[in-house]
UniProtKB/TrEMBL annotation:
Keywords: Membrane, Repeat, Transmembrane, Transmembrane helix, Transport. PANTHER family: BASIC AMINO ACID ANTIPORTER YFCC-RELATED. The keyword Transmembrane applies. It comes from the Bacteria. The lineage of its organism: Bacteria, Pseudomonadati, Pseudomonadota, Alphaproteobacteria, Sphingomonadales. SUPFAM superfamilies: TrkA C-terminal domain-like. The keyword Transmembrane applies. Gene3D superfamilies: Regulator of K+ conductance, C-terminal domain. The chain crosses the membrane at residues 5-22, 28-44, 56-74, 94-122, 134-154, 174-194, 399-432, 502-523, 568-588. It is found in: Membrane. PROSITE patterns: RCK_C (PS51202). It is a multi-pass membrane protein. InterPro entries: Cit_transptr-like_dom, DASS-Related_Transporters, RCK_C, RCK_C_sf. This is Di/tricarboxylate transporter.
Length: 591
């Protein structure tokens, strides 16, 4: 080995040890690895930041924005409600989610399928009172397995098809991958249904301030519109239709207030006092087209729709709101903000919002211009709750985000548009259409993940630039000459799975496919099983969050550590090796 090759392996080994140590955050480790590569001279200064322009950074960032828009649209929630009553156990929910994302990944790009179904995992986790981390990593692994089934499921399949076309004049077709990919997907889904317990139970994304305060129930005020499905429905039917997630504490009709009886028939223009969790209230108000109290009041002159937002705040002990009601304070007229919800721990509020006498410690939701809300909170003596996203009364774009995502997936499936361009365009159209406000879009992007990717790409590429990959290829060729066909195929499969955590999967195929084809010819065997093994191995990175963008996508939302991937992924990698080798040789004989 040359000095540069030794230095490349040393830097990568040191980086992996720091990842496994876990004391430093993953983006800091990536930055240190990049600085080490620069310091020892294996990374040229001109190439140091090339990773930040790599397609994978654009794909992951765009996918996070798209996923946020799909989650905000409420479409997934509506579809999920149809199954939620029957699918309540964690194992059943996990099988439903992993199977859905796995088979969807066969028809569309696996990163797109995962981004589309991630919001469903959060809703399922809430219903089963479990952490989303139970679902997210198994879903990412299922998307990798599902991508093996067709030509368009994952990038390695496309590259391997091209290599076979160059060698034999006949590339792999759309469903040539299906027999092997389907078998591995079914076996993998069965494993994930039971093996999710290997994940640590304490993994979850960083808690928000609102979660720390354990605010579970708000009271808000909404009016039934002419087009609402709640019109002419009884109170009992209204509550049952929404799975008892909200309660109706009072009904206001023609200025008269009454306690709701289960048989009370609701009418248009009735005002309901609703209680429930913020996300449940949001779903009910959006789904039933209710008019939220204060939401239709005039916004200050010059403010745009994207400038209007909501903020959650705690009434301080010295607040001017203590002992007073919103009606008497004339919040809209004097301060330019609307009170749209109130929560009080340990007490069920039943009065109209304007008549609730506020106390210290109450949590309130105010609506107004985002540029003025911090100043207004200071004037009112309230403390904002950071990093808490509430969308009460905000508009939803329904099917628009899904339509944009579907168009992006179709564009990539035809091969006319690269994945990075399609996803970036989809994210841009989502922002331009207002399906996701710009401020929320930036909140959805996991910036530490993108920093890690941008820093690691040039570090991983040193394996290629220093000639280390050529050295590995020569070693594999020498070793394969003494092995039987199944042993040679298993070795290529193992090598591809070992290399792909350090290179991205496309780069792994570009390096490994020519090596596999060359020594298949030298051994007098057909190249197809070796190329198929290369595609399967390159598409199956279950050991790290950096080898495939699907693994990277779930790292932040799931609160995972670097070492968590190997806990669930190492046995799955062994399963792919044990079952994948005979499947490949059965459908693609070597002789």
């Amino acid at each position: 080995m040359t000095l540069s090759q030794i230095l490349s392996v040393t830097v990568l080994a040191g980086m992996m040890l720091l990842f496994l140590w876990g004391r430093l955050r993953y983006d800091i480790v990536a930055i240190l690895a990049l600085l080490a590569g620069l310091a020892v001279g294996i990374i040229a200064p001109d190439d140091a930041f090339s990773g930040f322009s790599d397609d994978i950074v654009i794909i992951v960032g765009s996918a996070l924005v798209i996923s946020g828009a799909v989650q905000r649209s409420g479409v997934i929630e509506t579809l999920l409600a149809l199954l939620a009553k029957r699918v309540t156990r964690v194992r059943s929910q996990l099988l439903l989610l992993t199977a859905s994302v796995g088979f969807a990944s066969a028809l569309v790009k696996n990163i797109g399928a995962l981004a589309m179904l991630m919001p469903a995992s959060f809703q399922m986790a809430k219903r089963s009172e479990s952490s989303p981390s139970v679902f997210l990593m198994p879903m990412a692994f299922a998307s990798l397995l599902g991508g093996l089934m067709t030509l368009i499921g994952t990038s390695p399949n496309i590259i391997v098809s091209r290599v076979r076309g160059e060698l034999t004049g006949e590339p792999f077709r759309m469903f040539d991958y299906l027999p092997v990919g389907l078998g591995l997907t079914l076996i993998g889904l069965l494993y994930l249904r039971f093996a999710y317990r290997l994940l640590p139970r304490d993994r979850r994304a960083a808690p928000t301030m609102g979660e720390a305060l354990d605010i579970k129930s708000y009271v808000t005020e909404a009016t039934i519109t002419e087009t609402s499905p709640a019109a002419d429905e009884t109170v009992a039917a209204f509550v049952a239709r929404h799975d008892s997630e909200v309660t109706v504490t009072a009904v206001l009709r023609a200025g008269m207030r009454s306690a709701p009886h289960p048989d009370t028939e609701l009418r248009s223009r009735d005002t309901l006092i609703l209680g429930g969790a913020p996300d449940a209230l949001e779903r009910v108000i959006a789904r039933d087209r209710l008019a939220l109290e204060g939401h239709d009041r005039d916004a200050p002159e010059g403010s745009q729709e994207d400038d209007i937002g909501v903020i959650e705040a705690v009434v301080n002990t010295e607040s001017v709101l203590i002992g007073r009601t919103a009606g008497r304070m004339l919040l809209q007229r004097r301060f330019g903000v609307n009170l749209i919800a109130v929560a009080r721990r340990g007490e069920r509020l039943t009065r109209r919002l304007a008549n609730i006498e506020l106390r210290a410690g109450d949590v309130i939701v105010l609506q107004g211009p985002l540029s003025l809300l911090p100043e207004r909170l200071r004037d009112l003596g309230c403390l904002p709750l950071a990093e808490r996203t509430l969308r009460l009364g905000s508009a939803r774009k329904g099917l628009l985000p899904l339509a944009i995502l579907g168009a992006a997936m179709a564009a990539t499936a035809t091969g006319y548009v690269p994945v990075a361009v399609a996803f970036f365009a989809a994210a841009g159209l989502i922002l331009a259409s207002g399906a996701l406000p710009i401020r929320e879009a930036y909140d959805h992007v996991e910036w530490p993940i993108l920093i890690m990717l941008g820093a690691l790409i040039p570090v991983s590429d040193t394996l290629r630039t220093t000639g280390t990959t050529d050295l590995i290829g020569a070693f594999l060729s020498d070793t394969a000459a003494t092995l039987p066909p199944w042993g040679a195929v298993a070795m290529i499969l193992t090598a591809a799975m070992a290399v792909t955590p350090f290179l991205n999967n496309a780069a792994t195929v570009l390096v490994m496919a020519p090596i596999a084809a060359t020594f298949a010819t030298g051994l007098g065997m057909r190249p197809e099983p070796f190329l198929m093994a290369t595609a399967v191995g390159a598409g199956c990175d279950f050991l790290t969050p950096i080898g495939h963008q699907c693994n990277t996508l779930v790292m932040g939302p799931g609160g995972y550590r670097f070492s968590d991937y190997a806990r669930l992924g190492a046995p799955l990698s062994l399963i792919v090796l044990v079952f994948g080798t005979p499947l490949i040789l059965y459908f693609w004989p070597a002789l």
